[in-house]
């Protein structure tokens, strides 16, 4: 019996990179990082550090045999700084020593002197100075300039959402093992094994086939290991190739928080126009993304911001502009939602402000403008199989929201120092990588002579249960028990040119490839079965059910084991490789039009909060959700993804506050100063999955990883409503997160 990943986790038996047995001669690396946000390196003095007992070597940019560039989208990021540093925490050197403690100690003894240059940390300031990663992009639909004339109400405003630290439980880690013939084996906690392989090969000036990257599982990624696991793995690889001994690098929590990028903070200006019935006629928005010091994934994230500028609403006239601003912060990066949440927050802020101007409940405007079948997104794709209204209506019916609203009003009427409020948050999230070429995957399936099965594919397990879904796919394809199937580590020698496990399509893409490979083997097996049955039937008449061969729908004597061993004896192929590419996706960046997504995921949440109006403290007391999940491959996993996503989204919106000082040093660099939701702050979450079928999905399922995070935005606006129930005059621009401190100030702020 092969236990599932889930069983291993439940037993505490799952192995992470740092748990693996350490080989003899293992050395440890620790980077030396910039202590200033922007400057030129004048001198690096290694003397004292090199003399520290246990230090083996210290590597600088000049020790890199190949390219120092680790940038993926743009060649603007170096592994080790050469002349200039552009953020606090940027690696300048790597100390290699006999223990992690020695490496860290010695790193503190490396003296780097700089001549400081002016630094900028704010997106609007960077924008004013023309510090852009790339020129702005604009998505548009209809004619906004014309449409203002038909509006009865026009409101303008600004909105801002803050950064978010990933807080994956497993910090960044990699171990590199030198092999014969100048090859390397790298165990890395990355969402992008092929990117790690490619960057290391380029950095060491060797062929990609000399670098094997293996990933067993991650203790969480959330996007933080899509691009930013690469540098640490490259440092371990550089060190291992230089000293010819295995080298491990593992960041401690505080360093990980200080040195790695986060969800992008965004600033935005908006203008929204409605007619007097509440129909939104026009929406204009400009997003200023704080990219940090280098491009990283910022431009892809910015693009997704534009794709989701209209969220789950139809607005006939839209102009959305977005620009990625270069600042002297650590490069901000992928984080669950990938720029989508930042866009949706601004539109909700605009709707709330418009509702105040019209003196109606924001929910009225939300409902009235929900997307409908066939309506066009600003990027040219029509909404197909649109579930926006269905989710909204089902949420109201199933959870009796009208009654709940009345209960809240009654509660507020008789509680002067406690206020409740409920806000709705509809979502619509596009599924596919917006970089079309990434929408491909490979799988390699082996059936062994004992009937057990091995599956390799490009999906990285990070807690989202993708291995379980892949296992399910193979089990369904062969109609055999799941315990016969092992999903292997994610390995670049078995699977080439993998896309990152990201964009919520890890299961979709790799599951489809697994299904195709399994079907190829099954086709061979059916031919064998026909022969075993005396040749009186056709392969099309053969099926597998519960580990038994069926012919014309009737069970035969042939078991799975028998079929497999006969196949082997008759020299039939029991291994297959398959490639899958999502059909029909494309995007034309000259016209900003196309069909970038295979499909959309819809949903709607009602988030209820209770605010203590004496203290400003609050609880999210209830979250009710109707989520468009398709035909689930693993209902318990999908439920967990929705719950986890909501809590992570609520954290971003209400309690997680990233602060830097005026020199770009992270102030909130530990879990005592950076508050994330815990089990005590997690609300009751009721999730109802919409029955449904998704023809564009893997076995009619829908991707689930990222979309639920955006339900958390409802938490911010529920707090806004609760504050207004206490202090009706309070008006302010939407600036997230809404921490208890801010709630307290808002409760007692007057309109003066
Ligand atoms: N769930 C857990 N437990 N841990 C994670 O790191 N990452 C999220 C989501 N759910 C994550 C998670 C993100 S950002 C993505 S893109 C998807 O899972 C990736 O996995 P999938 O494509 O298999 O859904
Ligand atoms: N990563 C990426 C992503 O490279 N492209 C995407 O479109 C994307 N979307 C969501 C999350 N990660
Ligand atoms: Mo997720 S942000 O696509 O890793």
Question: Could you give the topology of this structure?
Answer:
Elements: H1 5-11, E1 27-33, E2 39-45, H2 47-51, E3 55-59, E4 84-85, E5 91-97, H3 100-107, E6 111-116, H4 123-128, E7 137-141, H5 144-147, E8 153-161, E9 173-178, E10 184-188, H6 193-204, E11 211-215, H7 230-243, E12 247-250, H8 253-259, E13 266-274, E14 280-292, H9 298-307, E15 317-326, H10 340-358, H11 362-368, H12 388-398, H13 401-414, E16 418-431, E17 440-447, E18 453-457, H14 466-478, E19 485-487, E20 490-491, H15 506-532, E21 542-545, E22 548-551, E23 554-559, H16 560-569, E24 575-581, E25 586-588, E26 593-595, E27 599-612, E28 618-627, H17 635-654, E29 684-689, H18 713-726, E30 734-735, H19 740-748
Helix pairs in contact: 6-7, 9-10, 10-11, 14-15, 15-16, 17-18
Ligand MTE is lined by residues 220-223, 336, 462-464, 466, 501-507, 641, 644, 703, 705-706.
Using brief descriptors, characterize the structure shown.
single chain, 752 residues, alpha+beta, Aldehyde Oxidoreductase, domain 3, Aldehyde Oxidoreductase, domain 4, eight-stranded mixed beta sheet, six-stranded mixed beta sheet, 19 helices, binds ligand MTE, binds pteridine-2,4(1H,3H)-dione, binds dioxothiomolybdenum(VI) ion
Q: Domain count, please report it.
A: 3
The overall average pLDDT, rounded, is 97
Strand order of the largest sheet: 3-5-1-12-9-10-11-20
Tell me which ligands are bound.
ligand MTE, pteridine-2,4(1H,3H)-dione, dioxothiomolybdenum(VI) ion
CATH class of the largest domain: Alpha Beta
Extended strand count: 30
């Amino acid at each position: 019996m092969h236990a599932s990943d889930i069983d291993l986790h439940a037993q505490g038996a799952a192995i992470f990179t740092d748990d693996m047995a350490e080989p003899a001669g293992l050395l440890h690396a620790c980077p030396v990082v910039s202590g200033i946000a922007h400057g030129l390196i004048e001198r690096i003095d290694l003397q004292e550090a090199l003399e520290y007992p246990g230090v083996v070597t210290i590597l600088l940019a000049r020790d890199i045999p190949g390219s120092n560039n680790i940038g993926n989208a743009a060649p603007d990021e170096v592994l080790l700084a050469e002349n200039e540093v552009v953020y606090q925490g940027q690696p300048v050197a790597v100390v290699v020593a006999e223990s992690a403690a020695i490496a860290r100690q010695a790193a503190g003894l490396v003296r780097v002197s700089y001549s400081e240059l002016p630094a900028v940390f704010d997106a609007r300031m960077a924008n004013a100075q023309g510090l852009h990663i790339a020129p702005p992009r604009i998505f548009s639909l209809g004619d906004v300039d014309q449409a203002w004339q038909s509006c009865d109400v026009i409101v303008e405003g600004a909105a801002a959402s803050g950064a978010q630290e990933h807080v994956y439980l497993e910090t960044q880690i990699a171990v590199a093992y030198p092999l014969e013939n100048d090859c390397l084996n790298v165990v890395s906690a990355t969402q992008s094994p092929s990117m790690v392989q490619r960057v290391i090969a380029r950095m060491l000036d060797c062929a990609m086939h000399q670098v094997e990257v293996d990933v067993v599982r991650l203790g969480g990624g959330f996007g933080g290991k899509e691009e930013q696991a690469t540098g640490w793995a490259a440092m371990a690889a550089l060190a291992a190739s230089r000293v010819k001994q295995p080298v491990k690098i593992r960041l401690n929590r505080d360093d990980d928080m200080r040195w790695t990028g986060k969800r992008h903070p965004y600033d935005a200006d908006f203008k929204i126009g409605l007619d007097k019935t509440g129909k939104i006629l026009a929406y204009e928005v400009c997003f200023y993304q704080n990219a940090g010091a280098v491009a990283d994934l910022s431009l892809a994230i910015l693009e997704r911001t534009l794709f989701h500028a209209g969220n789950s609403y139809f607005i006939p006239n839209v102009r959305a502009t977005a620009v990625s601003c270069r600042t002297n912060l650590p490069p901000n990066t992928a984080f669950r939602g990938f720029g989508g949440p930042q866009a949706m927050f601004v539109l909700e802020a605009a709707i709330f402000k418009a509702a105040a101007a019209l003196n109606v409940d924001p929910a009225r405007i939300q409902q009235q403008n929900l997307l409908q079948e066939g309506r066009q997104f600003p990027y040219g794709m029509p909404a197909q199989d649109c579930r926006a209204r269905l989710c909204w209506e089902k949420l109201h019916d199933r959870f009796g929201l009208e009654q709940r609203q009345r209960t809240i009003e009654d509660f507020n009427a008789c509680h002067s120092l406690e206020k409740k409020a409920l806000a709705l948050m509809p979502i619509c999230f596009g599924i596919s990588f917006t970089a079309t070429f990434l929408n491909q995957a490979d799988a390699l399936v082996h059936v062994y002579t004992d009937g057990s099965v091995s599956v390799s594919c490009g999906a990285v397990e990070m807690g989202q249960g993708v291995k379980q879904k892949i296992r399910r796919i193979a089990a369904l394809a062969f109609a055999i028990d799941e315990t016969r199937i092992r999903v292997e580590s994610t390995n670049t020698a078995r699977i080439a040119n993998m896309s990152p496990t990201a964009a919520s399509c890890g299961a979709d893409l790799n599951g489809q490839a697994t299904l195709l490979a399994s079907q190829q083997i099954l086709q061979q097996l059916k031919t064998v079965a026909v022969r075993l049955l005396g040749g009186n039937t056709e392969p099309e008449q053969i099926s597998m059910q519960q580990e038994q061969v069926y012919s014309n729908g009737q069970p035969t004597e042939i078991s799975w084991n028998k079929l497999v061993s006969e196949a082997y004896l008759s020299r039939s192929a029991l291994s297959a490789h398959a490639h899958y590419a999502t059909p029909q996706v494309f995007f034309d960046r000259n016209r900003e039009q196309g069909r970038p997504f295979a499909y959309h995921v819809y949903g709607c949440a009602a988030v209820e909060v209770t605010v203590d109006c004496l203290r400003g403290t609050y609880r999210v007391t209830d979250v009710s959700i109707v989520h468009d999940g398709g035909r689930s491959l693993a209902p318990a996993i999908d439920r967990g993804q929705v719950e986890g996503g909501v809590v992570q989204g609520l954290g971003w919106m209400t309690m997680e506050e990233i602060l830097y000082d005026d020199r770009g040093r992270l102030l909130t660099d530990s879990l005592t100063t950076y508050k994330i939701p815990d089990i005590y702050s997690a609300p009751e979450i009721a999730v109802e999955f919409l029955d449904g079928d998704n023809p564009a999905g893997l076995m009619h399922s829908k991707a689930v990883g990222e979309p639920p995070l955006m339900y958390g935005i409802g938490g911010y606006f529920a707090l806004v409503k609760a504050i207004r129930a206490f202090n009706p005059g309070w008006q302010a621009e939407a600036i997230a997160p809404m921490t208890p401190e801010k709630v307290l100030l808002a409760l007692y702020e007057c309109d003066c």
